[in-house]
Design brief:
It contains 16 helices and seven strands. It folds into three domains: 84 residues, no CATH class; 68 residues, Winged helix-like DNA-binding domain superfamily/Winged helix DNA-binding domain (Arc Repressor Mutant, subunit A), CATH 1.10.10.10; 169 residues, 2-Layer Sandwich (Beta-Lactamase), CATH 3.30.450.40. Helix content is 52%, strand content 13%. It comes from Streptomyces luteolifulvus.
Length: 334
Amino acid sequence: MRQGAALSRRRAPARPHRLYLRRDAGGLLPQWWRRASARPRSCFVAVLQEGRWPPGRHGCSPCRSAPEARSPRANFHNVNTRSSKQPPLQTVERALNFLEYVAGRDAPPTVQEVSSDLGLNITTCYHLMRTLVGRGYLERRPDLRLTLGASVGALFNGFQRSFNVSEKLSALVDELARKCEETAFFSTLETNNRVILKVLVEGSQPLRVSGLYVGLAGREYIRAAGKAVLAHLSPEQQREMVLKDLGEYSEAEQQDMLAALDREFEVIRRQGWAVDTKSSLGISAIGSPVFDKGGNVYGAVGIVAPTSRISSTHSERVHDVLEAARQATALLTS
């Protein structure tokens, strides 16, 4: 029994090793077996966890000299790094994609449409749909089309409560929308260096702007509210906020864009308002900064409308937005 137990211990490393060979290169057994004999047991545990020999993980000479992995999986050198870079849970991600797709559709979709547009297996879509319907986040109508459920409203109410925008500021946005007959907004600068849309009031025009929602943030260097705020921040804050959204550009392109924005910010500070003509084709926005008691920029107020309407009444709309910003600043400083 002792001899058998000892033999079992000597052969233990071969088990994960064979799993690796079956998956990648079965013909290399003699070569890999010689390498395996020199590796500590913890290396074989790593093979099971990551599907590869991890170079340099344990400092043993075979690990240091091992070739790069044959597996496409990433090489994580410690537990902390690994946990921070793990991909999101696929089932949860698919459920959220499903929910966001339904929320973004103008017409309620069917499960088949969700499956086709998201590239998901139809059976998976039915499982996700039943789960979301069961929790109240979706409703399935008699015609089998999907709409958002009541549970989404509860989430939205909780989201809105965190904004804590005063009734007077909300009333000011209402008045701006009524006066201009265009969609009006109020956005604030948050501690995470994002300018978040907090109040949104649709205009009375028959042709309105879509795609806006309470909680909208990001791409501040393009949005009118974002640029109105950015123009009054320190260079360090400007750079931090802008670079969050420029990851797809090269370093040289980023520097060129930052230089162009610096010039635009000077114009915004001088005239008191910013304009956005790039977020959506045919849509323009005007935003003006709002300041708190300490003279620091607090947010921005403005309007969004089809470019054709803003162009024809540009000076009037700019005047209305500037007046709304002046009143909002007065409310915050009183």
